[in-house]
Amino acid sequence: MMKAPRGQERAAGVDGPGLLSGALVGTTIMTGLMEAAQARRFTRMSLPFLLGTMVSERRAAVRVWGSLFHLLNGLVFASGYAVIFERARRSGWRLGAGIGAVHGLVVLVALLPIVSEVHPRMAGEDEGPDPTPMLEPPGFLGLHYGVQTPAVAMAGHVVYGAIVGSLYRPGRLPRR
């Protein structure tokens, strides 16, 4: 077994500062990009709005709650990325972007289509007109929110992954 050069010994544990900064910066930039895409009418999907309406119907509170939940989700997902980085014994923007692409595909293919099953203020895929105003379900690939939604979601997740991968150091290896 080769020994690491002096000063580069692996320490056991997670890179807490890298994990936290990657999660916060990555989620903030991802959310900003996706909200900008919504403002430019590339998509109708707003993750803070979608998440916030799960707990409140007051429009003023929806974005605040949604943004907080999205930041929390970013931290949880960054922890999953950290597990992969630790197992791979490396990180970096390319590896993070690759993981982000897989993450984005899972969100689009598996999670968005079933969100209407758990969201209290979202119509189901097979529900007809209802006098109660409800959110439209995103559907497969989020296509009910526009044909560019999959590209916007994938871009956001790839950028998130690249940022987390850039800021996280597995085994607390020194920064180069």
Topology summary:
Elements: H1 16-39, H2 47-52, H3 59-88, H4 93-111, H5 115-118, H6 149-167
Helix pairs in contact: 1-3, 1-6, 4-6
Alpha-carbon distance between the two ends: 23 Å
Oligomeric assembly: single chain
Structural class: mainly alpha
Mean pLDDT level: 85
One letter per element, helices H and strands E, the order comes to HHHHHH
Approximately how much beta-strand content do the residues carry? under 5%
Low-confidence stretches: 1-10
| Alpha carbon gyration radius | 19 Å
Number of strands: 0
What's the story with the biggest beta sheet?
Answer: none
| Shape estimate | globular
Continuous helix count? 6
Helix content: 55-70%
Give the gist of this structure.
It contains six helices and no strands.
Walk me through this protein's architecture.
This protein is mostly helical. It has helices spanning 16-39, 47-52, 59-88, 93-111, 115-118, 149-167. Helix 1 crosses helix 3 (59-88) and helix 4 runs antiparallel to helix 6 (149-167). The model is unreliable at 1-10 (pLDDT under 50).
Keywords:
single chain, 176 residues, mainly alpha
